[in-house]
Amino acid sequence: MKGPAWRHEGEEPDHRFTLANERTFLAWIRTALAVLAGGVLLEQFATRLQPRLLVSAIALLMCALAAALCVLAYRRWRANEIAMRRKGALPATAALAVLAAGLFLVAVLLLGLVLWLSL
Known about the structure:
Elements lengths: L14 H31 L6 H34 L9 H24 L1
């Protein structure tokens, strides 16, 4: 049977847990898509915000954050799958901190731009 070696380790987890892990992965992907859409929206439709270079930089930051979330989501799904196969504890993740810090930075930068625009 082909596939990654870790897929053949330990015992097959209960399907309910495997599907729950998959749903969590898909929730992270939906979040990444929303952040990506926000970056595209900002770049294409926030024409009143100036300077444009900073707006474009924020949009690029959002797109990079979305890409990072996709990678982190897969790594978390895989780590959880391996832990369940080995009947171990689920590992901690940095994904929550990355998401929170990235969105905080985007929010602060956009707030600064909007306040500066209103002066």
